[in-house]
Amino acid sequence: MTEIWKPHVVVAAVIEADGRFLLVEEHTEAGLRFNQPAGHLEAGETLIDAVRREVFEETAHHFEPEALLGIYRWHARERDRTYLRFAFVGQVTGYDPTARLDHGILRAAWMTPEEIRAASARHRSPLVARCIEDYRSGRRYPLELLHDLSAG
């Protein structure tokens, strides 16, 4: 019998304020890397709930998604793992300075596009730069594109 292949479904947030983007610096197997606030979809969770949760857990910022930026497939050859990323754009609606960041997250950082480009060797994946490029080009899709038939 052939094993069923499944991609790793993840969500990510591209958050911009005053010309800076919110990234996280995190410990990975490859060392310290930068990424958008992102993480795995959990069982029973909607994509919208997942991105809200991940942004808060990794940055202590409350996030409200406003649009879908894109759906990205990336195969990480070194780990032989395929990721299916649902990237969202939206606004920070609050900050909790007392919240503890997820294990492995060193810090949340607001970075300019120039700083992000300069740190490209430390991006967790090529998805970091691609999502910023797509955001800056104005790409947006309505959240109504997503349907969760299990909710309610």
Give a structural overview:
The chain has helices spanning 47-59, 113-118, 127-136, and strands at residues 8-14, 16-17, 20-28, 31-35, 38-40, 61-76, 81-95, 105-111. The chain has a 4-stranded mixed beta sheet, with helices on both faces. Strands 2, 3, 4 and 8 form a 4-stranded antiparallel beta sheet that branches. The chain is α+β, with helices and mostly antiparallel strands and 152 residues long. The chain has a domain at 1-81: Nucleoside Triphosphate Pyrophosphohydrolase, CATH 3.90.79. A hairpin with a 2-residue loop joins strand 3 (20-28) and strand 4. It has 3 helices and 8 strands. The radius of gyration is 15 Å and the shape is globular.
What is shown here, in short?
The chain is α+β, with helices and mostly antiparallel strands and 152 residues long. The protein is 19% helix and 42% strand. The protein has a domain of 81 residues: Nucleoside Triphosphate Pyrophosphohydrolase (Alpha-Beta Complex).
Number of helices: 3
Strand share of the residues? 35-45%
CATH topology of one domain: Nucleoside Triphosphate Pyrophosphohydrolase
| Uncertain runs | none
The 3D shape can be described as globular
Run of helices and strands: EEEEEHEEEHH
| Name given to the CATH architecture of one domain | Alpha-Beta Complex
Which strand order do you get reading across the main beta sheet? 5-1-7-6
Overall radius of gyration? 15 Å
Q: Quickly give the structural class.
A: alpha+beta
**Helix residue percentage:** 10-25%
CATH classification class of one domain: Alpha Beta
The CATH superfamily of one domain turns out to be Nucleoside Triphosphate Pyrophosphohydrolase
Q: What's the total number of strands?
A: 8
Largest sheet report: 4 strands, mixed
Q: How confident overall, as mean pLDDT?
A: 95
Distance between the termini: 35 Å
